[in-house]
Design goal:
Number of domains of chain A: 3
Structural class of chain A: alpha/beta
Radius of gyration of chain A: 22 Å
Helix content of chain A: 25-40%
Largest sheet of chain A: 8 strands, mixed
Number of strands of chain A: 20
Cofactor (chains A, B): FAD
CATH architecture of the largest domain in chain A: 3-Layer(bba) Sandwich
Family (chains A, B): Belongs to the flavin monoamine oxidase family.
Keywords (chains A, B): Oxidoreductase
Mean pLDDT of chain A: 96
Number of helices of chain A: 16
Shape of chain A: globular
Low-confidence stretches of chain A: none
Organism (chains A, B): Sphingopyxis macrogoltabida
Distance between the termini of chain A: 20 Å
Protein name (chains A, B): Amine oxidase domain-containing protein
Strand content of chain A: 15-25%
CATH class of the largest domain in chain A: Alpha Beta
Oligomer: homodimer
């Protein structure tokens, strides 16, 4: 080891919310920490944006009452929440027809009946998943051999109910039903509080937003850490032996007693580990691709939909814009809508040139909200697929066979290498809440160990 | 650009058979080439080994009469073939019972009847795949939503036939049936000459071996290229603009007009591309994990199985050692068996300590060949999962949803970036033949372009 090598108790790879939380908790406990970040900013999948002078979230933004760690963290930092606007009717677009609804989307009655049965079945299947170890459920192998799509083809009869299953896979996980295993889908439902919580606004995961933006949370944590974070310094390799770890980053090597990898599995798989990781852990990391999402904001002179009795919420499984919410600050100022382009729609629209993509978005908004939507005064977009250090969002998912073959290595340390990032959370993986929880857990382990 | 930057017509990333072939073909055409290789050796998934003084292949080794490019290449280099030993009975182990067979494994009659029907069905489904574009088959979306396992659960009734399907997925592709889409499985059968060719010895893909080892082929190509190859120089990033590409490797940057990426998708995904690759290409690369395989060689005083009327070939879906072949040089010298530990068995045994793994292998050989197998005089192993620049083998596969969502980007150049490697072959992907063909195709395109 060269004398010039810098030494720390813990090196954290990734300055997203998860890594920042780990670092800060350890620093508070008196440990010396260094956070290495590939990007030129902190926050990972949390990121600020702006439209017509209004600050918005280009990344994760909502919070629900179940997300206790995130709420506590925000409170501690003095960041307040604001309720998601919900007054008026929501919209569902299906096969080109837009219908209004308040609590239950308008589907044919047999489909609604079947949806009730499906939800009951999911609740029953979820109840059979051992906490933190879904791979050891009695029917794990059977459920993991199926994609959610082939599960639906087998168990769902009505077209409306199949449409619903496909739509929520896009809206909740930014994936197509053919790509995720039924077992991982069940585990996502379980760990994120159940279907109702995940799709819900009032009482659910979209109940509130953070005044000024959720991105302020990682930003403030990073401000406290200050010089302990190095941006634009991607890690290429990690070597470990009995004495410690050596981390090779773009701007040189440093030493530590432990390392916490707080990036999505596909980016963890880019790091060259020596000695090599166990086959099952390495196998997991090459088997967890990211979902696909583009987030857009569109501004109008006024929130005209409110006057028309609409909440601004819209959902569809066949339009580019699968999910829309009101993002206005009030009745009096400009109107802002936030839209999410999910799964195969995101993959397709990522290839459009920016003008064509904007046109496709405005087309969909006219489809939902009428001609008044055709004259936006502002448009901004964040294509997460095009972010080289994200390659998609919201999070990584498991195709068939992965959970039972490799899933139990998700949180298991490999010697001095520990795993954080929202994917490693047992509760709310894929959410800011999960990022925070996985970060806290990693810090808890290392507070004693380091 | 710094003056010190070196300039080439083409930079090839990866000195496996595919990359070496590309480089050599372009060099012959008068182009300046540089091959950058992460490992300390050439050959990729082709690699020499030794047991009791006998040279063997730790990687790909067999060749069949359909593999015309590989045979022609070997001939040109003066490397001869030797037939795989086939005299005597083959063995099948199923549920703990070993049975002898010559052409057809001993399965219950209803299973054999069903196997005939399955093969007919596969042949019919394969015939519906457009050449080079299986993603555009009429039923592509339906077939791609299914894992091979859920296809089998739906269409295969007898336990024996299901066992067969699972066993060939392991033996041919080193994967578990839950992990590959039925569409990609069909495309693998089609592109590799059909099931009979793939599992066959005489007239099939295991008909011949190369005297002295298949690894000599990349080795000789590399010898001709000489200083145009740089070992232990992994590529971190590739930037391209209208003028050319800049490749950032561990030991510095160099410039070229074009780059050929001749590594498996998971390793291509480790390279940081600027500007970012199109979402669908980047999506593909994070969705094609490697199969899992450990290759072992075991030496005995004599090829004792030959005297017992056995060919040395054994196959099983439930033993660790899923495939065994005779690797002896003749009747008179030592006896050598080569064994392949595939799919979940490889993942499991990779975690064993070396002594326990050897003991498990010898146990299986005693199970197949009797007590005489308990006293080997030599044992060597190559765990491809533990090779940091392979992370598995034989090749990458597509989980459900990948072929229809992303598959058409497999061979599509991204500006100045071209794709080789066996996975990019239209014929014999996963084989040495495919590596060669993909290399030739990349060179054909660039001979005109560069």
């Amino acid at each position: 080891m060269a004398d010039s090598d810098r030494r720390y108790d813990v090196i954290v790879i990734g300055a997203g919310l998860s890594g920042l939380k780990t670092a800060l908790e350890l620093k508070k406990a008196g440990k010396s920490v260094l956070v290495l970040e590939a990007r030129d900013r902190v926050g990972g999948r949390s990121m600020p944006g702006e439209i017509c002078g209004q600050t918005v979230d280009f990344g994760g933004q909502w919070v629900g009452p179940q997300q206790t760690q995130l709420l506590a963290q925000a409170r501690e930092l003095g960041i307040e929440t604001r309720p998601q606007y919900t007054e008026g009717a929501n919209l569902l677009s299906r096969h080109g027809r837009v219908s209004r609804y308040t609590s239950t989307p308008k589907l044919p009655l047999p489909s609604l009946v079947e949806l009730g049965l499906i939800e009951r079945r999911w609740r029953r299947d979820i109840a059979a998943l051992p906490l933190g170890a879904p791979w050891s459920a009695e029917r794990a192998r059977e459920w993991d051999a199926l994609s959610l799509e082939s599960w639906a083809l087998r168990h769902v009869r009505t077209e409306g109910a199949r449409y619903f299953v496909r739509t929520i896979a896009g809206a909740l996980l930014c994936i197509d039903t053919s790509q995720i295993s039924y077992l991982h889908f069940l585990e996502m439902l379980r760990s994120c509080g159940g279907l109702e919580t995940m799709i819900g606004v009032e009482g659910g995961a979209q109940q509130d937003k953070f005044a000024g933006g959720a991105w302020q949370i990682p930003k403030r944590l990073a401000d406290i850490l200050g010089a302990d974070i190095e941006l634009e310094n991607p890690v290429h390799a990690v070597e470990q032996d009995a004495a410690g770890v050596r981390v090779f980053a773009a701007r040189g090597a440093c030493l530590a007693r432990h390392v916490v990898v707080a990036v999505p599995p596909i980016f963890a798989s880019r790091i060259h580990f020596a000695p090599g990781l166990p086959a099952r852990r390495a196998g997991l990391m090459q088997r967890m691709p990211m979902g696909a999402v583009i987030k857009v904001h569109i501004a109008y002179e006024t929130p005209f939909w409110r006057q028309a009795g609409l909440s601004g919420s819209a959902v569809s499984g066949d339009r580019h814009l699968g999910t829309v919410f009101d993002q206005s600050l009030g009745d009096d100022g400009i109107g802002v809508l936030v839209g999410l382009i999910e799964a195969r729609h995101a993959v397709a629209l990522s290839a459009f040139d920016p003008d064509a993509r904007r046109a496709a978005v405005v087309d969909d908004l006219v489809h939902y909200f009428g001609a008044a939507a055709s004259r936006p005064i502002g448009y901004v977009e964040q294509d997460w697929l095009a972010e080289p250090w994200s390659l998609g969002g919201y999070a990584a998912h498991m195709p068939p066979g992965v959970m039972t073959g490799y899933g139990d290595t998700l949180r298991e340390p490999c010697g001095r290498i520990h795993w954080a990032g929202t994917e490693a959370a047992t509760e709310f993986p894929g959410y800011l809440e999960g990022a925070l929880r996985a970060g806290i857990r990693a810090a808890d382990v290392l507070r004693q160990a380091a």
